[in-house]
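Data availability (excerpt). The following record was deposited with the supplementary files.
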Amino acid sequence: MKRISIFLLLYMAFVAMSCYDDNSAKDFKIVKPIVIEFAGAETSVKIFQFDTLEINPIIYKNGVSDENLTYEWKIQGNEYPETVLSTKMTFCEPISAAPNSKAYDLILTVTDKTTDIQEFSRISVTVESSLGEGLLVADTRDGKTADVSLIMAMNFTRGLLEKNNKVYRNIYSSVNQHNLNGLVKDMQSLVKSDSRTLTILTESDIYRVDPFEFADWEMNNDLFFVPIEGEMHPEGMMVKDYGGMEYLKIDGKLYPRNSSWGNLYYNFYMFMPDLSDYNISQMLICGVYYYATPYAFDEIKSQFVQVNSYSDGFLQFREQKPGLLFDVNNVGPYDAIYMGEGENTQLMTVFKAEQGNDYWLAAMQTKEEDNGTNLPTGRYVLTNCSGINEAVGFAASPISNDFYYATKDQIYTIALGESQNVTSESRYTVDKERDGEITSMMMWRGEYGRMNVSSESSSTGITTQNAQYRMLIITTYKESTGEGKVITIPIVKLRSGTLEPNREIHGRYEGFGRITKVAYNKVGN
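Predicted structure:
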């Protein structure tokens, strides 16, 4: 009887369960995943800075159209600010993050807009330096802030073929995610043993970056052993490669830096032997290698001075005997507006009268010891030279007696000889419709640049020559288009200062804003 009761109970339970309607599974829906495939491509890549990285993933989600998927490619790591680089499925963007041996993370986020479900994938990106020797170009688009680009081209870069010319634009802002405050007044690179720096001066700030990477380091008073009190007004720089010396001019005072043992900091400003006040207006490293010597002009005493060999102060020249072409210790009521190196390491300085429009060029020898009678070698009157009062740039030749100056529309040459009264000859007229007006001019001093010149003996009509001391660099600006350009013009005949007539083989680098400074980015000894 007991067995029958148990059987009946089990039977009733089975019947009850068979009558129960279970609806729980009907509300459950399997969500299909977002699929990201790289079709066998590497998920760890190396790339040169500013080169374009291309990644072509296969991305899909079954049952969801491509229009309902969104994409975000974001780079991060190594203190680089988290930055979205693309919102397209295919990634094809330049990588401007600073070179680093540690890889960056390139994160791909795919979002299904119908469910807000996301899928992630990571690419490991190691960035190597692609920047090197070339011409630095500082420009402005808004008249308030600045950026720096680098031209690596045959004209400026050793061993580079013309077909491989490349312009890396807006490097500073690309790397640091902000522009320079103010307009660039000067910039100089210095690479010596374990010291590698690029210093950039604006109207109110001093920036220090690596010339291979351009990432911000320290700035302003963080670069001085003794901080400067109050506002500072950076004005210019000069670099003595031999010995690794750098001189920074702020408010007329010169602050030296010896880069030995990786030193990055400037000393207190240099003093005159008699501790008198001074105001440096122009300065120059004259000569090369061991013989390179820094000279300057002090506006307060209207005197030339030399930096002593220890770079901790100035040397004043001994009293000059009367009857010389000019007195190096008292030039008179003139302002120095240019200083350059002439033939046989002569120091060439252009003076303008403090009152009136008198201009003259002082030539001063630097190789021989001063005995009080032999420093001045020339005093050339420039007052009657065409357009001299409108000059926007000057250039002296270290290998010839040519002297050059540019106005907003022409380049003039002067052949310096025995006569102190000189005349100028126009050698180049800018194409204003094409290029606008000339804004600056300089002589190319780099060792390794090359330039094209016309040649009747060549089958192509063109030959390539060394450009050191034989190539003028001008910058131009066209107001109506807001475009600045860099143009290189070969000097084909020394002494006469004749320039290459075929403009089609001049170097041309376009697409900048208003250029305020160009400088040689020297990144090797």
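Summary of structural features: The mean pLDDT is 89.
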